Amino acid sequence: MFSDTEIKDEHFEANYLLGGDFSHSEITNSAFIQCNLERAEFLGAEFFNCTFTECNFTSAFLTGVRFTGCSFTKCNFDEAYIFRSQFKNCTIENCALGDAMLSTVDFTGTSLKNVDWRGTPINSAPIIIDGIEYPIVALDNGHMHVGCEYNTYEWFYNTDEKHSARMEGLRARRFWKKNKPWLFFLLEARGLYKPKGD
Q: What mean pLDDT comes out for the span 68-95?
């Protein structure tokens, strides 16, 4: 559809772009308003100073995408796959990430405001730790993902290796025993978590 193209100063409104292909395209100074981008492909695409308002990115594939100076308002990213992508100096406001899958995502200079993550708001970029057996996404709302498990920091803090073993076996038990101490040290250092009673 739009793959390998350059688009400048365009206005897309109420467009049905379900499953559209934007791979390796370069889009500048363009507006997307109430567009359905569900299951669209954005492999290696670059967006500069674009606005996305009330757009649906459900189950979209955003791999290797660079958004620079873009704004996202009231957009839905539920179950989107966002890998090795950059949101640099962007604004993400009143959007829903739902069950988006994030891995190696750079939010440098990006402002998040009232972004819904599985029913609770976040207002700063998540801490994403991958390259380990169970990727970790730590949020400013008191919750985090460890692999496919999503729960509160307190729940994870009180979870021991035996509980991990019951859920996923010996591999998870070893992972949690090895990684829990430095993970909670990091969360405390970033001001995201303080154990009760401390």
A: 96
